[in-house]
Amino acid sequence: MYALAAYLVTVTQRKEPMFNVPPAVLATVGVLAAVHAMRTLLLNEEQDFQLLLTFAFIPARYGSAGGGLPGGFGAELWTFFTYAFLHADLLHIGLNLAWLLPFGTALARRFGTWRYTAFMLVVAAAGAFAHLISHPGAAVPMIGASAAISGAMAAALRFIFQQGGPLGLWRGDPSSDAYQVPASSLIDTLRDPRFLIFVGVWFGLNALFGLGSVPIGAAQGQEIAWQAHIGGFVAGFFLFNAFDPVGSQSKYDARPSG
């Protein structure tokens, strides 16, 4: 997984059209990096702890024990989104950025800035909700952009495998419409072996790291919120059509011919 993350960062920095990072994604990277730098460089341990209590997603906030947490009713709303801007350490943020750059780039090129931004916030909230229902009353804060990035990944898989799509740029296809090809339908996507293989590997990695078979950050007591990842992924997969300005292949096929 580490090697794959490093590879994705490397190819995203190339100059081919597929990897020219859109401003919306660069802004996302900048905000995530700035928040982490602020916490690391400007806040002491107590201040950082209070920030986590205020902006991390904590399931206990929605139970009887939540009254002692800062932020009140407002935090019950904003933490569905703000948790995604916080990361545990450089490894955590580095891995997330490695996945964000390729998949966020594909999505931002297709959706445009505002649709991309709204989509990422919605799938982040979906990931938090999945974590809430799978960890009722938990007092451990959840942080990280992984759920939102999982949603972006799921959405990108709806169109990157299409003929003439972004993957064609690997083969030297200079088409400027690669990110505007009609998406495959839900049924066709679920039947695509490439999609199934990718998702199988992705779910397998989540199982390995999330269930503790392969620890990450165990020395700091970190755990992978794999339920949130799955929540973001499922939301991204099924909500893609609601944000997609292009439409699906089935929509085009249904149009009467001239």
Describe the structure.
The chain is mainly α and 258 residues long. The chain has one domain (2-251): Rhomboid-like fold (Up-down Bundle). The protein is built from eleven helices and no strands.
Text of the CATH class:
Mainly Alpha
Tally of distinct domains:
1
Tell me what the CATH architecture is.
Up-down Bundle
Structural class estimated from helices and strands = mainly alpha
- Give Rg in angstroms: 19 Å
CATH homologous group name: Rhomboid-like
Give the helix level as a range of percent: 55-70%
- Which blocks of ≥5 consecutive residues have pLDDT under 50? 1-18, 171-175, 213-220, 252-258
Estimate what percentage of residues fall within beta strands. Answer: under 5%
Globally, the shape reads: globular
Oligomer: single chain
| Individual helix count | 11
Distance between the termini: 50 Å
Largest sheet: none
| Count of extended strands | 0
Give the SSE order as H and E letters: HHHHHHHHHHH
Please provide a brief summary of the model.
With 258 residues, the chain is mainly alpha-helical. The protein has 11 helices and no strands.
Fold blueprint:
Elements: H1 2-12, H2 23-42, H3 45-55, H4 72-82, H5 90-111, H6 113-134, H7 146-156, H8 186-191, H9 193-210, H10 226-243, H11 249-253
List keywords for this structure.
258 residues; Rhomboid-like fold; 11 helices; disordered C terminus
